[in-house]
Amino acid sequence: MRNSISPTSFFPILLLLIFLPFTQCSIFPLDKSGNLIEQICKKTPNYDLCLSSLLSNPESSNVDVKGLAQIMADILLGNVSDSLNYIEGLVKQAPEEQLERCLAYCAELYIPVVKYTLPQAIEALSKGQYRFANYGISDVAKEADTCEKKFSSSSIQSPLTDMNNLLESLSDVAVAIVNTLL
């Protein structure tokens, strides 16, 4: 007796092969999330920073675009908090009064960002209020720039340049991700 494939048993497989590429589901969710992360990061001003930041969080492989925006905002908040702690430590050790004033000025810029602005932006993001979230997240880049300008206006070399540049870049990436939700 010969083994034969009936047309009715082959038909479901044929349908699957034809329509699978057009569906939003994926047999391999990690590939889909990796592709989502790559697609989103390509829409940001700093692809490498976006990719490395999101991939550093294991949850990023299991979320949608809104989740990626939330993760990036949380990463930004963590970095601003760390920066504020670092600045406060430098203020205590500043050898010159002018340097201490500049550092204190930067700390005063970052305190409301850490305590109010970013937490409110993150909450707005979770509620789908993307424009408000965008505004709060973009404030980080403005404050980092203002901090840096304080040093240049006082002719003191900023010990915060690299950190401020990173905060600006993270903020720009987070804003770009939120913009994809608008």
Could you walk me through the main structural features you see in this protein, from its secondary elements to its overall organization?
- Helix 4 (65-93) runs antiparallel to helix 7.
- Helices cover 75% and strands 0% of the residues.
- The longest helix has 30 residues, at 97-126.
- The protein has helices at 7-19, 29-41, 47-55, 65-93, 97-126, 130-153, 161-179.
- The chain is elongated and about 50 Å long.
- This is Pectinesterase inhibitor domain-containing protein.
- Residues 32-177 form the Pectinesterase inhibitor domain.
- One of its GO terms (molecular function) is enzyme inhibitor activity.
CATH architecture: Up-down Bundle
Briefly note the structural class of the backbone.
mainly alpha
Mean pLDDT, to the nearest integer, reads: 86
Low-confidence stretches: 1-32
Annotation field: number of helices: 7
Say which CATH homologous superfamily is assigned.
Invertase/pectin methylesterase inhibitor family protein
Round the Cα radius of gyration to an integer and report it: 23 Å
How many beta strands in the DSSP annotation?
0
CATH fold-type name: Butyryl-CoA Dehydrogenase, subunit A, domain 3
Number of domains: 1
Under the CATH scheme, which class? Mainly Alpha
Helical residue percent band: over 70%
* Beta-strand percent range: under 5%
The backbone outline, from C-alpha atoms, is elongated
N→C terminal distance = 63 Å
H/E series: HHHHHHH
Oligomer: single chain
Instruction: Give the biggest beta sheet.
Output: none
